[in-house]
Amino acid sequence: MSSGTLIFQSVVLGVLLGGLYALLASGLTLYFGIMRVVMIAHSAFLILAAYLAWWSHTRLGVDPLLSLVVTVPLFFGAGVLLQRLLLSRLRPATLTMMSVLLTFAIAVVIEGLLGYAFTGTQRRIQLGYGAANLELFGARIAVVKLIAFGLAAVALLTLYLLLKKTTFGWSLRATIQHRDAARLVGIDTDRVAGYGFGIGLATAAVGGTALALDTTIYPSLHWHWIGPLMAIIVVGGLGSVPGAAAAAMLLGLTQSLLQIPLNTTWAQTIFYLALFATLAFRPQGFFGGRLAQRF
Amino acid sequence: MTTRMTTMRWATAFGATMVLALAGCSGGDDGGSSSDDPIVVGISLPLTGDFSEPGKGVQRGYQAWAKIVNDKGGLLGRQVELKILDDQSNADRVVSDYEQLIGQDQVDIVVGPFSTRLVVPAARVAEEYGMLFVEPAGAAKEVFEQGFKNLFYAAPAVADDHYNHLAEYILGLPAGQRPATAAYAAMDDPFAQGTAYGLKKKLEEGGVRTVVDEVYPPNTTDFSGIAAKIASSKADIVVGGSQYQDGVNLIVALQQLDYQPKLAAFSTAPTSPEFAAAIGNKTEGILAPTGYTQKAPYPSNVEFVEKYTAQFGSPPEEDEANAYTTGQVVAAAVTAVGCAEQGECQQKLVDWVRNNTVETVVGPLSWDATGKPQGAHMIQQWVGGEIQIVLPADAKETDIVYPKPAW
Questions:
Q1: Model pTM?
Q2: Is the domain B30-157+297-365 a CATH 3.40.50.2300 member?
Q3: Which residues form the signal peptide (chain B) (predicted)?
Q4: Which among A60, B86, B253, B377 would be 20 to 30 A from B12, CA to CA?
Q5: What ipTM does the predicted assembly reach?
């Protein structure tokens, strides 16, 4: 009954939510960093991955987490092809604008195909542990949310190590920081950009699966996600993965806590308030993101 | 300039109306007396566009009604013929459709389209021509605030009255068992919110204190925050004004927080065929109001379900049943009054429906002066792994379980 328990419960829920947001937003900020591409279709790919997880669970009977073995390489390949065949053909002068139109079209195509293949019926993965929970100092933690959070943590850590510790990661970051300079020192920036795009889409495969564990999915669900995710990457500093993760955690926590005094409608507006504040006072973002200063 | 244009337009409109009126009179004179002519029923339905799914359901309901009536020899010895136009889910189109049906095609009867948005403009046209207008959709209270005199909603109740039987049951419990506190969560949608707030109003008047009152936007996907508030309030009962996915997500979020209320009622979601699978079969004791169920014991419903299934291969759902109910109301009025054509007959039909109770597949229906039905929805509960009617007492399949077992 005490509001102390409610606050603690909300903090726990906020952290779990923030972790999921961080995973979902990481790919989006990566695309922008690599190519200055605004990838509207990112959330559509999330929903596609969620559907594949649902499908493999209901039709093939495998745990949704196992679907990652197929979806991660598949999405990586799709990302490389998408970048090499479509996005790299856009004219550099109008790339950002045109990428919005192109990826918008891709999002609509994915939504249409999902509706065609699985109908508009709302689906939910039925897991034996769907409502199972643990108790932690009076707060309840749902096992599925914990798994989703774990997935996010592992995926983001992998991404971090990949960017910081491998040669490929270095060339990718060099491409993000200064494309021409990277080319001067012998980096094949086109190929690196393709692989970078593939990695971004691979995070969508992981994120979509995490999402499918604990929400109802339907083909047009992606429109509800793209707005908050865009807000997160702007607040975090466009192109900065750690920035996006920090912003996601902060906004998730704030949203969860704001629900106590306010209602759901107003708690959701925190994303857009943060977006306005960022654009008005610190357009380069609050966490990292030196990159966006040039825009 | 503008004034003269307006005057001319009025003059033209007046002239056209006179011609139509004269045409209508002469048509009525020789058309009505002939007993071989079919009774033409005009309908505009959203067969394409946003509402095409429910629109087609309504169409099947009307078709089933026409077939069942005709197989029994028709109405007043005349066959029933449906004339259905597609309004493409467009409110502008629905107006011209009904203008055409009544003015040009000279149909004998008109019945309503689907969805509140389309019912209001359609009813306005029917009202102008003085036609009886029985409609299968449009439960929102706005429909009954337009001052329509010829409109009747052919369903048991409007959204605010869906939970009436449950409110009566809760307030009738002995003082020791009656819940003291209640939590409400409703989607920001006139229909879903109407159901929850209808019950809230009655329970508050009966002394059940409201401890949580949350309204969420239709696009909400994360319900853990709302669930945390409800769980922390430890309310005795929880009421959800839900559609489908929000209801499912809220129930799962409440279960994840191990919240165990004495009673849980949610609109729409629990009656969906996918519901049990979606929440992992932890359905025990969940209540839901329902406007129509194939299992309802009313005599005409048994016939409807059997013949509908034979005609279409699967049993009817709520949209089909609402259309069929509309047909039943019209048929009862036509049979009792003994006429079906435009002109004076329509007012007699309106007066008859206003003053009588009609037996339908959703039970006996009667209406107030605004055309609002006077009934309440049946209440169903998940008992023993299936959803069964528990209220009202005269239609129940099994006894209501209260307090509900843990989910």
A1: 0.77
A2: yes
A3: 1-23
A4: B86
A5: 0.79
